[in-house]
Amino acid sequence: MRIEQVPTPAYVIDEAKLVNNLEILKSVQDRTGCKVLLAQKAFSMYTTYPLISQYLSGTTASGLYEARLGREEFGGEVHVFAPAFKDADLEEILEIADHIVFNSERQLRKHMDKCRAAGVSIGLRINPECSTQDEQALYDPCATGSRFGVRIDQFSEDLLDLVDGLHFHTLCEQNSDDLKTTLDAVEAKFGSYLHKVKWLNMGGGHHVTREDYNLDLLISSIQHMQEKYGLEVYIEPGEAIALNAGYLVTEVLDIVENGIETLVLDASATCHMPDVLEMPYRPPLRHGFEAGEKEFTYRLSSNTCLTGDIIGDYSFEKPVEIGDKLYFEDMAIYSFVKNNTFNGIGLPSLVLMDQTGDCRIIKSFGYEDFKGRLS
Ligand SMILES: *Cc1c(COP(=O)(O)O)cnc(C)c1O
C-alpha cells in the first residue's frame, strides 16, 4: 500500500532515507577503520537490523534488554553501558556482551573479575568535564553534579590495570567541531592514560548524517586518536542512524473552535512523541509552516485528557478538514521507543516503506498490549 493508505496512527520508516544515512556512516568506518555501533535507545525497529548490520559493526545497549535484542536480531558486536548493573542482569549480560562499560570505580571493581572470566572487554566511562552544549542540563552529561563518568580528580593510574578501554559520551545532536573541542579536553586531562588502553569509545551525539555535518573533521579527529595513541576507536550514534528517516502519520478527528482553532489528532505528544514535551522541540510537519506564516493557523493537539498535550501551532496554505492526514517528519528516532499507553491511547503501528514507496505493516497493536502491562 502507499503511505496515504496506511491506517493511522502509524510510524512509517523510510528505508531509502535509512540506507542513505547508513552509507554515510559506513564511509566513516571505511575511511578510518573505526567501528560504528547503533545506539538502540534511539531506534530499535529490529526488522531493519539485518539491513543495518550490512553497514555497521554492532549495537550498543543501555542494559540487559537492549543487549539481548542486539545479540538476537543484529549480530556483530554487543556493547553495554549502564550507570550501575544489577547482579542478576550482569550474569545474563556476560553471556552476550563483547564490551561492558562501567560508570564508576566502585562498579568496575565489583564486577570486573566476572567480566574477565567471561572474556568480556572492560571499559570505564570518563567525564572530561567539557560542556559543549549550551541548552539545558537535561542532555549534558558534563553538567555540574552529573552522575556520568569518572572525573580526572577521581582517576588514578592503577585503574588502567583493570580496564581495556575508556568511554566518553558528552554530545547531543552536535557537529564535529564540538567533538574536536571535547577530544582536546580528553587529551589534556587523560592523554597520558590513553597510551595505555586498547580502545576509546567516543559515545553518541554525533549528528553525522545531518546536511551541514563536517565529516572530514570527524574523520581526521578519529585518525588523530588512532595514530597518536594506537587506539581502536568506536562511535555509537543513535539519532544519526535514522535521522529524518521516518514519519508519524495521523488523522484529523475533529476541529474545536475555542478562540483558537485546534485540530484533534489520533496521535499524541505525550504518548507518541514525548520529546516534543520533554526536550522540548517542535517536530517538522509536511506542508506545515510557522504559525501565522500562511493563511490558516491551527493548534495541533491530541485525543488525550492532558490539556498540555499540544504538539504546536502550525499554519497551512489551505484549510485543514476533518479526515485529512498529517505527516510529522523526523519521527523514527526517540519516538516509538518511548511510547506509552497513557489514557488507554493505542500504540501506533510500525510500518516499513521500501525503496519503491510501498508500505508494509510490520506490527500493529491493540487492547491486549494496553492490558498486558497492567494487572
Ligand atoms: C544516548 C546515548 C548514545 C546515543 O546518543 P544519540 O544522541 O542518539 O546519538 C550513545 N551512547 C550513550 C552512552 C548514550 O547514552
TrEMBL record:
GO terms for biological process: lysine biosynthetic process via diaminopimelate; nor-spermidine biosynthetic process; spermidine biosynthetic process. It is an enzyme of class 4 (lyase). GO terms for molecular function: diaminopimelate decarboxylase activity. Keywords: Decarboxylase, Lyase, Pyridoxal phosphate, Spermidine biosynthesis. Pfam families: Orn_DAP_Arg_deC (PF00278). InterPro entries: Ala_racemase/Decarboxylase_C (IPR009006), De-COase2_C (IPR022643), Nsp_de-COase (IPR005730), PLP-binding_barrel (IPR029066). Residues 11-331 form the Orn/DAP/Arg decarboxylase 2 C-terminal domain. Its EC number is 4.1.1.96. Substrate binds at E239, D275. Coiled coil: none annotated. Its cofactor is pyridoxal 5'-phosphate. This is Carboxynorspermidine decarboxylase. It comes from Streptococcus suivaginalis.
